[in-house]
Predict the structure.
Amino acid sequence: MDTQKIISLRLKIKDPHGFPKIVDGSVPASPDELTCYRVAEDEYYNSDSERLSLYLSDSTLDAMITAYGDDAECRCYFEIAKNLGAEMRIKRLTTGTETSEWNTLVELYNYYKALSNDCKAQVKADTGQDTGRVGQSKAQTICGGWQL
C-alpha cells in the first residue's frame, strides 16, 4: 500500500472533508487546525486529536488506485455519494428531514454527486467522446461539384 498515493487521492476527493493538508504521523504538540493527521491505516485525526469519519477506507482507495489508475478519482466521488445516500436514508428515519444533520448530509451528497458528474463529463471531453459542441456540418463542394 503506497501511503503517499492514498494521501494524494484523499486530498483530491476531499475525504475527510475540510482539510487541505494531510500529514502522515502523530498529532504534534502544536498542531495546525487545517491539517489532518494520519496516525495509522484508516485512523485520521484533527488538530484537537478527535478521530475523523472517513467515507472510504485506505484499502478501498488503494484498490481503486490499483484497478483504475488516474480514473480512481471519478470512481471515488461516485462511491462517496453512494455512501452518503445510504447515510441520508438512515438519518431521515431516525431524526427526520428538518434537522441540521440531514441538511448537512444533503449538501454533501449534492456536492459529491456534482463532482462525480463533472468528472464524467471531463473524461468524455478528454477522450473525445463528447466535445460539448453542437452544430451541423455540410460536405464542401470543390471545383464544379466534386465533394470531399
In short: Residues 48 and 82 are 29 Å apart (CA to CA). The chain has a mean pLDDT of 85. Residues 3-127 form one domain. The chain has one domain: 3-127.
